[in-house]
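A further point concerns the way the authors explain their paired sequence and structure data. The central task, working out the structure tokens from the amino acid sequence alone, is never made concrete. I therefore recommend that a typical entry be quoted early in the introduction. An entry of this sort, consisting of the sequence and the corresponding backbone structure tokens, reads as follows:
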Amino acid sequence: MMTLAPSLKLLKINYYIWVMNMEVYLDSHDLWQVIVKENVLKKKDQLTLLTTFSAIHEEIMIVRDAKKTVKEN
């Protein structure tokens, strides 16, 4: 059974370790092909997006959203 969230959350200080962990995690759940842009079902695409967002610390998401809002205005 697949867990939806990797145990390691992305922070400002652990990017390279997080990337390696996410690759292994997604590959082990047969989702890495979404990242490398192979033909995938929309359901897998959405599951990969959910998994990736759930592995990003809330602080990083708030900063990302604030930058997006500034660009739109």
